[in-house]
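Issue 218. Parser rejects a valid record. Input:
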Amino acid sequence: MSFETSDSNWAIEVNGVSKCYSLFKDPKDRLKEFFVPRVHRWMPFLGRSTYAQTFWSLRDVSLQLQRGEVI
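Output the parser choked on:
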């Protein structure tokens, strides 16, 4: 969806907003996700793994509201 206008009556304009969360099955996994990559720098022979699942709540959302519009 594209809004092309030279009108400057936008009260609110938001372009390309994204928000991503890391979801963990176990609270301990949050600590592992933090420490394991740092330990891996000193011990590269250790296997790498991720403990989080990525969840996108918003991805590339744009919104424009003119003065007086209500949602």
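Fixed in the parser; the record now loads. The chain has one domain: 10-66.
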